[in-house]
Amino acid sequence: SLPIPRWRRVLLKISGSTLAGNAQNVDPKVTMLIAREIAAINRLGVEIAIIVGGRNFFCGSSWVGSTGLDRASADQIGMMATIMNSIILQASMENLGVQTRVQTAFKMAEVAEPYIRRRAIRHLEKGRVVIFGGGTGNPFFSTDTAAALRASEINAEVVLKGTNVDGVYDCDPRKNNAIIDHISYRDFAAKGLSTAMDITAITLCEDNCIPVVVFNLHEPGNISRALSGDQIGTLIDQ
Ligand code: UDP
Q: This protein's superkingdom (predicted)?
């Protein structure tokens, strides 16, 4: 039995590296686990929008670092990678009977709808899971920032950021440091904890009073736990 949800409309950010699991690009076990959890929450009547990263296929900034090629082109490939992940998630959820729509930040009309804010909200109200592909549609941004932007646009009550680790570590997770339970937006930015969440994204969430929960997506049941407001991972807010 699932707990009573604390939030009615949520924006779930899934990092690309989480989808990779033990596979090279996408681990079917991970996508099915995520799809099952989302299906359960969808049945509770929680409105779910999703932003997925793309690093499991392509990371713009590391490509630029190793080749010296221009960032804008590399980022376009990165954004298309996020659309591939979006389609995979969509297919996995539809396989479980969840109604979904993918909306892309730039037109890919044969593959998905274009992003239209009011239409996205309408889908959510009808109980469909909306997956936003293509990040913000702009190079030099991240899918964390896309998550903060779309969450602000659709009035989501929280950004749930699912990752490979248990939350925000003060320092290097490999050093076995404890997870921070709670941190303010300001302290998060001051400490430069950008490996856990992009600082631009945190700033946007702060401006729009949207709390962020960073948690481990590989632990079954964690999305529901995060939703029910249980202490899980790291809460970033005022
Ligand atoms: N990207 C972009 N603009 C955006 C979102 C993403 O240019 O608004 C590109 C960028 O190259 C980035 C890649 O898409 O490296 C994948 O996104 P991100 O690194 O945020 O994915 P994640 O780390 O969550 O897998």
A: Eukaryota
Ligand 1 within 6 A of CB of 143: yes
Supply the pTM of this predicted model: 0.95
For residue 54 and ligand 1, the question of a CB distance below 6 A is answered with yes
Atom of ligand 1 nearest to the CA of 17: 25
Q: Measure the CA–CA gap between 20 and 37, rounded to whole angstroms.
A: 17
Strands 100-104 and 179-180: unpaired
Instruction: Verify whether ligand 1 is closer than 6 Å to residue 59 (CB atom).
Output: yes
**Ligand 1 pocket residue status of 105, Cβ below 6 Å:** no
Rounded to two decimals, the ipTM of the complex is 0.96
C-alpha count within 13 angstroms, C-beta hemisphere, residue 20:
15
The b/e string for 102-112 (b: 16+ C-beta within 10 A; e otherwise) is: bbbbbebeeeb
